[in-house]
Design brief:
Length: about 400
């Protein structure tokens, strides 16, 4: 109904302690969870049925408020193992159903408690189907999410915050989530107890290749997959120079995933990547790394209206015809018509035909837009890590 706000605000339900207000004035009332605070960001949705803790700690979600389309989020609790980075970069989460008590043998704490410890607010009781349709049809909006246990919710102020937030286009977030110092990574992928080792993550004992991973916002499970493939991984900051990388004498270089606008991050990353390609260095890029490889080769990227976020996205390998079910999280995409003749599109999305993979002809260089480390998600694309090692073997 029209009121003093100048836009329509639905009736406030009894006991509401949270609100999500979009930049266009759309208001969603709900019930708060997690930290009692206000956060502003781009509102997106993720269709995954599992792995909410990995999603919330994925550095690629920096600057975003995540709407989970699956209603039962939080029912397996939280732990200290299923994280992709120590400090969750997401701004908040939107849920349909209230968070229930944990029901999983690996849980060590309630999701609500975990959210509070990381200053992350959440809202439940939202019609997430309506919000998802809004994002699908009109693009990802900016929004302000407030959890106020006392019920003191200033809708006009939340609208102002959402309307004035600049958005992700043109924003370099890789510097915010990248490591500050170089470090080694030796942890391998999770495995169940098999008589030879206990349940949990392992340790790389006999490395075969040296890989430098440029950290634009690297997920831990990507680094674990590299280690499981026999790679001794040295992680370097996003702003590392060519000299910083080559002094580690790598057999190959990995371009990590990450958040924000690839064109903004490319201001300092593209020259380094181009020099690596010119030196015939084996290069493997994922997500933001894939997009910046395209920029380094002369291509362009663009902002998507709604992005790809979920663990059920079909991708076709153009070389084999095989269809892989993949995990995805990106809001920018490589524009195929801008790619030079020496760059070949290797994978495409079967949802919308967008570019999902590239290779540079005559060079040991390739990349994918999706997340083959599957955290969360299917394992169909794990072979890409072996492909990277094979390229280094042939070099």
């Amino acid at each position: 109904m029209p009121n003093q706000y100048g836009f329509n605000v639905p009736p406030r339900p009894e006991g509401a302690t949270a609100a999500l207000v979009l930049a266009d004035g759309t208001v969603f009332w709900g019930y708060g969870l997690g930290a009692a605070t206000t956060k502003v960001g781009e509102v997106c949705f993720n269709t995954s049925m599992t792995g909410y803790q990995e999603i919330l700690t994925d550095p690629s979600y920096a600057g975003q408020i995540i709407t989970f389309t699956f209603p039962h989020i939080g029912n397996v609790g939280a732990n200290d193992a299923d994280i992709e980075t120590i400090t969750p970069p997401a701004r908040g989460l939107v849920l349909r159903a209230p968070v229930t008590d944990p029901s999983n043998y690996r849980a060590t704490r309630h999701l609500d408690d975990w959210l509070k410890s990381h200053d992350l607010p959440g809202i439940s009781g939202i019609d997430t189907r309506k919000l998802t349709r809004r994002i699908r049809d009109q693009g990802a909006p900016n929004g302000a999410l407030c959890h106020a246990p006392d019920g003191n919710l200033d809708i006009a102020e939340l609208h102002r915050l959402a309307a004035e937030w600049p958005g992700l286009e043109g924003m370099d977030l890789a510097k915010e989530v990248s490591c500050r110092q170089t470090y080694k990574w030796e942890e391998t992928r999770w495995a169940f107890a098999d008589g030879e080792r206990p349940e949990g993550y392992g340790t790389l004992n006999s490395p075969k290749k040296r890989v430098v991973a440029i950290d634009y916002g690297a997920k831990r499970n990507i680094l674990r997959c590299l280690a499981s493939a026999g790679c001794e991984v040295t992680v370097v900051p996003a702003t590392s120079t060519l000299e910083d990388i080559l002094r580690h004498e790598p057999d190959g270089v990995f371009l990590a995933n990450g958040p924000g606008d690839p064109a903004a991050t490319g201001d300092y990353a593209v020259t380094v990547i181009r020099e690596l390609v010119e030196r015939d260095m084996p290069v493997f890029g994922i997500c933001l790394g894939h997009q910046m490889l395209a920029l380094a080769m002369g291509g362009k990227t663009g902002k998507m209206e709604r992005g790809h976020r979920g663990a059920n996205h079909p991708v076709r390998d153009n070389e084999t015809g095989k269809v892989e079910i993949t995990s995805q999280n990106h809001g920018f995409v490589v524009l195929p018509d801008t790619l030079p003749d020496n760059v070949e599109v290797t994978h495409v999305s079967l949802f919308d035909g967008t570019v999902e993979g590239l290779k540079v002809r005559g060079k040991p260089v390739f990349s994918v837009q999706h997340h083959p480390e599957a955290s969360p998600g299917p394992h169909d694309s794990h072979y890409l890590f072996t492909r990277f090692v094979d390229m280094m073997d042939r070099k």
